[in-house]
């Protein structure tokens, strides 16, 4: 069986990415990231191993029980749209580098995991279990480090 995606969220994955063979294995990787106490392990790449397919980028705040998604397909790019809004762009650290998402991009982790599983099972179709939105991070201020805990907890 050809594994359609490689996954990276730890430094060692840069050389040896995870190769999930099922949606459940991909969701297990999200769970591992969500429960990690390392703030730099909160952003995941789910990259296609075949041409002309989609990628998914996953940010999580396990302590808050929420996360955000960025879907990058061959003809569209969209961010998750949730009910929770923190009033400023949400940021997850990608090996220490900020990755910004809309302030209303956060969805509950169980919903996020359902979307991640759907993405895997449909071989890269944009999951329909959540709402999506267009957004540009051009206005996000990379010098504002309050994104580390936008809820002040």
General form: globular
* Gap from first CA to last CA: 45 Å
Structural class: alpha+beta
Tell me the strand percentage band: 25-35%
What do the pLDDT scores average to? 87
Kindly state the percentage of residues in helix.
10-25%
Q: Give a count of the beta strands, DSSP E runs of length 2 or more.
A: 9
Biggest sheet layout: 7 strands, antiparallel
* Rg over CA atoms: 14 Å
Q: What is the helix/strand order?
A: EHEEEEEEEHE
Sequence stretches where pLDDT stays below 50 over 5 or more residues:
145-153
What's the number of structural domains? 1
Number of H- or I-type helical stretches: 2
Explain the overall architecture.
- The strands form two sheets. Strands 1, 2, 3, 4, 5, 8 and 9 form a seven-stranded antiparallel β-sheet that branches. Strands 6-7 form a two-stranded antiparallel sheet.
- The chain has one domain (5-134).
- With 153 residues, the protein is an alpha+beta fold.
- The N and C termini lie far apart (45 Å).
- It contains two helices and nine strands.
- The chain has helices at 23-35, 109-121, and strands at residues 5-8, 43-48, 55-61, 66-72, 77-81, 90-94, 97-101, 107-108, 131-133.
- Residues 145-153 have low confidence and may be disordered.
């Amino acid at each position: 069986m050809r594994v359609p995606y490689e996954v990276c969220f730890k430094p060692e994955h840069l050389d040896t990415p995870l190769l999930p063979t099922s949606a459940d294995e991909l969701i297990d990787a999200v769970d591992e990231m969500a429960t990690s106490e390392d703030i730099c392990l909160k952003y995941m790449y789910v990259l296609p191993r075949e041409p002309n397919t989609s990628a998914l980028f996953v940010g999580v705040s396990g302590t808050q029980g929420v996360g955000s998604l960025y879907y990058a397909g061959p003809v569209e790019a969209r961010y998750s749209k949730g009910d929770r809004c923190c009033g400023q762009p949400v940021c997850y650290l990608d090996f220490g580098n900020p990755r910004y998402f809309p302030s209303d991009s956060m969805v509950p982790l169980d919903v996020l995991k359902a979307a991640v599983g759907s993405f895997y099972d449909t071989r890269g179709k944009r999951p329909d279990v959540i709402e999506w939105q267009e957004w540009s991070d051009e206005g996000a201020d990379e010098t504002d480090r309050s994104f580390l805990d936008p809820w002040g907890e």
